User: Which sequence fits this backbone?
């Protein structure tokens, strides 16, 4: 699944860019999901006092609210990006916000002061209000969210790659860098997506409820050693056999 972020300060045009990009990707035949990161502490999809709000309060966990035309699943906590992605199956996920996670980013800005604060190697394009009177900032192209959405989408299709397994800063470091540096390296052509060592050549695979779980190499090796030490003494096991374990509760 390819995942990118449209990031920037409030009122710089992020939502317009996100929506136009989703529409253009869908026109090209891709399945697209979007995630909107919301910083308002009081945000809730539920009206206080509604019946589904009462379900959510009582459950303290997950509640599904099924209507005639829409169905919501509500978690009573903030999910990490990885958790959200594990529930999605689409060609592209466009995340509005989450400027700190290790994703390729389009930055929306009003002026150069904002761009200076936001731009690093994970940014591959600029859009938003700044595009009203600029077409370039340093070596990055600037795209108008409506007039140049086709060109911006071309760049998304060219640049955005399969999401890294641990898109956060405190990642494994097995590649000799962190995930943000890997994103920058891939965008700049210094690295390839296959240089991430965590989801490559997995010797061990864990699925929970049908979703693959990413495991850092150190944990892969530890788990593999423990399981192999256990089955080594079992009748019928030969070195090199694959081992499948399923736990059902
Ligand atoms: S190996 Fe992959 S997950 Fe680990 S730091 Fe590098 S890019 Fe991130």
Assistant:
């Amino acid at each position: 699944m390819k995942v990118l972020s449209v990031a920037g300060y409030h009122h710089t045009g992020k939502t317009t860019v996100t929506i136009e990009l989703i529409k253009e990707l869908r026109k090209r035949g891709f399945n697209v999901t979007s995630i909107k990161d919301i910083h308002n502490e009081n945000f809730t999809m539920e009206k206080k006092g509604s019946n589904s709000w009462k379900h959510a309060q009582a459950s303290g966990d997950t509640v599904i609210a099924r209507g005639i035309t829409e169905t919501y699943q509500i978690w009573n906590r903030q999910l990490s990006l990885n958790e959200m992605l594990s529930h999605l199956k689409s060609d592209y996920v466009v995340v509005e916000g989450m400027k700190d996670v290790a994703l390729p980013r389009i930055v929306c800005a009003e002026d150069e002061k904002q761009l200076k604060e936001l731009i690093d190697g994970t940014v591959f394009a600029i859009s938003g209000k700044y595009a009203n009177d600029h077409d370039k900032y340093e070596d990055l192209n600037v795209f108008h969210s409506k007039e140049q959405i086709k060109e911006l989408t071309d760049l998304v299709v060219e640049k955005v790659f399969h999401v890294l397994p641990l898109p956060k800063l405190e990642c494994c470091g097995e590649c000799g860098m962190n995930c943000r540096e890997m994103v920058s390296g891939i965008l700049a052509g210094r690295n390839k997506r296959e240089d991430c060592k965590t989801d490559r050549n997995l010797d061990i695979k864990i699925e929970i409820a049908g979703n693959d779980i990413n495991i850092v190499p150190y944990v892969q090796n530890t788990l593999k050693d423990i399981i192999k030490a256990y089955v080594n003494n079992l009748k019928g096991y030969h070195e090199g056999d694959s081992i499948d374990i399923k736990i059902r509760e």
